[in-house]
Amino acid sequence: MDNILKQLTEIKNELHKPFPYTDTDKIQKDFRKEFNNLSDDEDSLTADFNTYCVNIAGTLSYVLTGKINKIPQDQIEMLQKTFFGYFKQYKFFEDKIEIYNDFSQEYKNFEQTRKLLLCLLSK
């Protein structure tokens, strides 16, 4: 458990990078056809990715301040899925995220954090 906490403390700084707006805009432009096929309720890539990131960052904050028992259950439940698992409507570009360096790096950092949090919370 101490090792996981150490890793989470170290990764915290990686999560405070600027949001990849340029890449989310480019993804929406490059996949315009696919985004046009989504309903208005489903077509909020920037907001949805932000929700995914904020949930992980918020959970990390609870953990690092020693308030694990105060994490809301719905927040923990959201951690159970990847971004593409939770927001399935975006699966069409999941295998292409490497093209978008800032988005890809942000996604990898938050995914690593999500997995570490799940590991810690399962103990």
Structure description:
This protein has one domain (2-12, 22-121). The radius of gyration is 15 Å and the shape is elongated. The model has no long low-confidence stretch (mean pLDDT 95). The protein is an all-alpha fold and 123 residues long. It is built from 7 helices and no strands.
- Uncertain stretches: none
Say what oligomer this is: single chain
Counting helices, strands and paired strands, the structural category is mainly alpha
H/E series, N to C?
HHHHHHH
Report the radius of gyration as a whole number of Å. 15 Å
Please count the helical segments.
7
Shape: elongated
**CA distance, first residue to last residue:** 8 Å
DSSP strand tally: 0
Strand content: under 5%
Descriptive tags:
mainly alpha, 123 residues, 7 helices, 63% helix, elongated, single chain
Summed up, what is this model?
By secondary structure, the protein is mostly helical. It has helices spanning 2-11, 21-30, 32-36, 45-64, 73-79, 83-86, 101-121. The relative contact order is 0.20.
